[in-house]
Records
---
Amino acid sequence: MAGQSDCQLSVFSPEEIEFVAEDELVEIVPNLRMDSLNFICGDYGPFYPQIATQVPLWLAVALKKRGKCTIRPPQWMSIENLTQVLEGERDSHAFQPLPFHYVEISRLLFDHARDDIPDIYMVRSLIEDIRDVRFHKVETNLEKFTASSVTCKNMSAMEVNIIRAFAGRALEAFYKHENEQQVPDTDGIQDRQLQIPNDRPKRNLKPR
Amino acid sequence: MASGNGSVSMMDDYETLISTTDVELLKRAWRNEKAAPEILQYETALIQRIKEQIQLAEQNVEIFESNGIGSLTVSLYQMDLDRSQFLLRSYLRIRLQKIEKYLFHILKTDDQLNRLSRQEQVFARRCTDDLGSHLDETVLSRLPDNYQSVLKQSVTSEEDDMVPAPRLDTFVVCKARQYLSGLDFEPEYSTEIAELESDLLTFACYKFIKKPFEKGMIDLV
Amino acid sequence: MYARKGYELVKDFASGEKGQLQHFNEELFNQVVDQCTQHYTELEALIRKMQEESVDVRETRNADHYGALIHHLSLIRNKRCLMAYVYNRAEIIRNLAWNVGLELLELPEEIQEKFSDSEKTYFGKHSAALQSYMADLDIDLNVDMVPPKDPYIKVRVLHDMGEGILLSDKTANLARHSMHFLKRTDAEQYIARGLMEELTG
C-alpha cells in the first residue's frame, strides 16, 4: 500500500489551465456605458463607449459574446512579433519570451473574437508553427533531464503541463538510480523486518 | 528574509500591502495545494475572508436581481462569484481528497494534523474510524492476532510499515518569488540545489524546495 | 507457490479499467484469507516443534526457523495484497461519492452490485462524513467540479425526469429530449449521472 505514486492529484487539467489564463488582462473597447464592476477579483470599469480599458480575459469574452465590446489583441499577437518569435524559436535552442499562457489566450481569442484579430489566418498559423517548434524543443529538451533539478526559461503553461507527468517520472527514476542505496524498500520484506511474530522473544535474521 | 520565523508573516504583510486580491492569494494557495504531494497548512484567515466576500457578493447579486439592475450586470457579477466559488470549492476539495488518501499518515503526527482546519480534523477522524472498521471487518479481523494492525504488517514491525504516505521525492514545477541562495535550502540537499533564480521555471524534487516553499518563497506551478 | 493467490487478487484489481470497480472477488479473497490462516498454523507448528526439541527459538537458525520465516513472510505478503485490494477499492468507492453521488441509491445498479456488504456500509458512512463536513462549512463541494464558464448552460434531457423538478432558480419539466437553459450548478449533477447532456456551440 505504501509508496504508491499518484499524479492524478497534482496535475492541472486543460480546463484548469484555461481558467487560470482567463485572469490575464486584455484591452477591450466597450460599446456601452456601464458603471464600475466591483468584483471579488478586483474593480473594473467604469466603461464608456469607444474608451479602451483593461479587463480579465473571461470578462472580455463574456462582454464580447453579448456583443458589448471589441477585444484588442495583445501586442505579442501581432504578425510582426510572431514572425520574429518563430524565427527565434527556429534559430535557437532557447524558448523565446511569450506569455506563460500564450496557447490558451490565443485559442480563447480565436474562438470568441475572430473578427477582432486582423489577418487571423496568418496569426493562427504562425502561432501553430511556434507551438510545434516549441513542442519539438520540449521533447528534445527532455534528453537533458539528467540533473536533479532542471530550469526551463520561458516555457509556457501548456508545455509545462505536457511534460510534467513524463519528466516528473523520468527525473524520479534518475534520482532513484543515483541514490539506489538510500531508497527504502516499500515492501519492507528485504530490510530489518525479518522477524517472526510469536509470543516469544524477538530474533533477528540477516537480510538475504 | 533569508531565514527566521518572521519571514512568513512579513511575506503575508507584504502581500497585503501591495494589495494582491484575496482571490489572487487563493489561486496561489489552490495551485500550491494541487501541485504539492503532501497536505499544506490550511489558510485559515484567507479562507475566512474569501467566504465573507463570497457571501457579500451573493447578497449583492440578489439585491441587483430584485432591484431590476440590468441582467447583463447581474450575470457578470454572477460569473465573478462563480469563479471565486470554484476556487474555494476546489481548494477545499483537493484537501479533503488528500486527507482521504493519506488518512493514517496525517493522523499519526501533530505536525500533520495541525495543518488541518478544525472541520477537516473532525472529518479526518471520522474517515479513519470508517475506513478502519471497513478494513477490520473485511481483512484484519480474519487474520491471526499478531497480524491485525492496520498500521503495521505484524507485531514484530518496529515502525508503521503499512501506512501510505505522500512521496516527497515527487518532482514539482516551481518558481521562486525572489532569488534564493544555498542558505535558503536544507543543507542536506546542497549538492542537489544550490540556488534558484527568481521567476525561473524549475523542475525540482519537492523535498529539495520544501523548506523555502513552506516559508512562502517559492510557488508551485 | 506461496502468496501466488494474493498476487492474483491484486492482479484482478489492477486488470480492471482504471477507476472502475470490478465485482468484489469474494472467492479469491477468501482463499487468500484461508491461506493466511494456514500459514499461521504451520508457522505455529514449526515453533512448537522447535520448543519441543528444546531448541533456542530465538537464536537457532535451523531448517524449522527458516520454514517458519517463510510462512511469516508469505502471510505478510498475503496481508498486504488483501489490504491493497480493499484499500484501493475503497479509494474508487470514495471517488464515486465525489463524482457520481453521495447516496448509495443514486449510484447506478450495475455499480452497486459490485460492492461487498462492508463496502456498502463504508460508502454510506463516508458519504455521511463528507456531508457533515459540508454542512459544518455550509458549502456544497459536489458541484463546480470543473472550472466555471458562463453561469447558464444549454442542456438536453436524455432521460425523462418528470415534471416540476425543483431547481435553485425555478421549477422545470424535464421531459426526455427537451432543451433547457439551466444554471450550471443545477445541471451538473444530472450531467454527471448521464441524465442530461450539455449543448455547446
---
Amino acid sequence: MLLTPEDITAIGLSLQVALTATLISLPFGFATAWLLVFKTLRGKVVLEVLVNLPLTLPPVVIGYFLLLLLGKNGWLGKVLAETGIQLIFTWKAAVIASAVVGFPLLVRSIRLGMESIDRQLLDASRSLGASWYDSLMTIILPLSLRGIFSGSSLMFARSLGEFGATIIVAGNMPGRTQTIPLAIYDYTSSPSSTTMALSLCLVSVGISVAVLLLHEMLGKQLDRSSAL
Amino acid sequence: MRIRLKAKKKMGAFSIALNADIAGDRIGIFGDSGSGKSTIVNLVSGLLQPDNGEIFLDDECLFSNQQGINLPPEQRRIAIVFQQAMLFPHLSVKSNLLYGYKRCRLEHRSIKPEALIELLKIKPLLERGVNRLSGGEKQRVALGRAVLANPRLLLMDEPLSALDDTLRFQIIPYLRSVSEEFNIPYLFISHSITEMQLMADQILVINNGEVLEETTPEQLARNRMARSQNGYLNLFRLVDPVDQNGLFSYPWGKNHLLISTGNSSGESLFELSSRDIILFKKNPEAISARNLLQCTVTELFDSDGRVGVVLSAKGEKLIAEIVRAAADELSITPGSTLFAAIKASSFRKLR
C-alpha cells in the first residue's frame, strides 16, 4: 500500500470534515425532525421539500448554489467578508457542502425513530408535570437515540464520499482542501498513478466498512438495553 | 371535588359539546366507544384545547376562552391512567414511578413512594425494565406513577379494557384503595356497567359527544337491563366459604349461597345475571337448582318492556328480570312473597 504524506493529510481531512459536518448538523437535524413529526405547522410541505431537496439535486448544483451564496459577491459571503471570515476554498466550505448534502439522510433517520414514539407517552409525561421541553429531553430524545445514531453514521459515511459540491466550494488543493475522493480524482486523471488511486480506494473502503460495523454494533447495543 | 365543564370542540367530522356540573370523589363517565369519553379526558387534562367554553376544577379555572386562560397540562396536577399502561420504555420501573414525583413541587408531595409501593405490591419489580412486566403489573406501575405525581384528580381512561377478565377484577381493588388511601378523587371512564358499579358513585352518560344524563351506577344498570347482553348483574362480595358436597357454601347476610367455583380463602367477587334467577310463587320443594331463597318483593321497575323485580332475601338485595306476562301471571306486587331459584353454576367468579 502506497500513501504519500499528502494522501495521509487527505485522509485526516476527510475524517475531520465528515465528523464536523455531522456534529454541526445534529442539533439542526433533531430540531427539524421534531418539527416535522410533532408540530402542526403551516407550510410543512415546503419545509419537507426543502429538507429533502439535496437528496435529489445533483451535488454539483448544490455546490454552485453554495458558491453563489457564500462567494465574494454572494449575499451571505459579503456579510461574512466584512467580518473577516472567508469560507470559500477552505476546509470549512467542505464542511458546509457535506452538511447540506448529508442533512436529508440525517433528518430521515431521526424522523423514522421519532415517528415510532407513541404520542400517549408524551401525553403521559405532560400530565405527570413535564413541560414540553422537559418531555422533549427526557422522552423524545432518549427514544430517538437509535435514529440519531443511524442518521449520524449514514451522514458521516455520505460526507466521506462527498465530491461534487465540495470540489466547487472548497476546490481541490492538496494539503488544504483535498479530501479522499478529490485525491482519487486527481490520481485517476494521470495514467501513471493507478496504484496510488487504488491504495486510497482501499482506505476509503476500510473506513466505510468500519463505520457500517460501528453502526450495526451500536444498533444492537441499543436494542439490548431497551429489551431490559 | 366538583367539575364544571362547558366546552365545545370540533375534530374533523366528530364534534363534542359538553355541559356538565358534577360533584363527587368517584365519578364515572359512561358511553359507547366513539361517544367522546376520551376527548373528555384530553379536555380536562389540558392535552386538548376546547374551541370555546370553560373548564373548572373546584374553584380553579383550568380553561376559559373568555378570560384567556389555558393552564398547560403540567400545571393542572391531573394525572392519567391510560388504557395501555404507557410506561416509558427506556426507564426502569423505579424511574417510571418517580417520573411525576420528581416533578411535583415539594409542598404537594404528601404521598410517600414507599407506602404506595407497598400498597401496590410492586417492590420486587422496581429494578426491572418495563418490557419484562405482565399486563397487570404494567397497569399497577402506571397507576403508581400517576398517584406519585400527587395529583388532585386522577383520570382513569378505560384502564381495564386492555386486560383480560381475570386481571381486570384483580386491578379494581387497587384502583379503589389507592384513591381512598391517599384521598385522590377520580374520573373513571369505561363502557362496562359492571366496572361502573364497582368504581363509581355518580355517572355521566355520554352519547355522541353530549351529556345524555347524570345518574347512579344502580340506575344505569337498571335502565340498561333489557338491552344489555347479560341483563342486570347482581354483584356479591363473599368471604369464608365452607365445603358442602364439593360446592362452596358462602354466608350472604343471614342466607347461604351455594356456588360451584370459589376461593377457599380471602374475599371473592361474583356476578349473577338477573336472567339466571327463576321465580316461584310457591315453594317448589324439590328442584335441581341448589339455591332456593324465600324473598319479599320490595320494588318493581320497568326496563324497555322487561320487568325488574327487586327482592329482599332476609335483608339482602337481589334483582331478577322477568317478562311482563310472567309478572302478570304471578301477580307480583311490592310486598308479595316469592321463591328465587338459582343454580350454583350461574354465579360467575370475577375475582
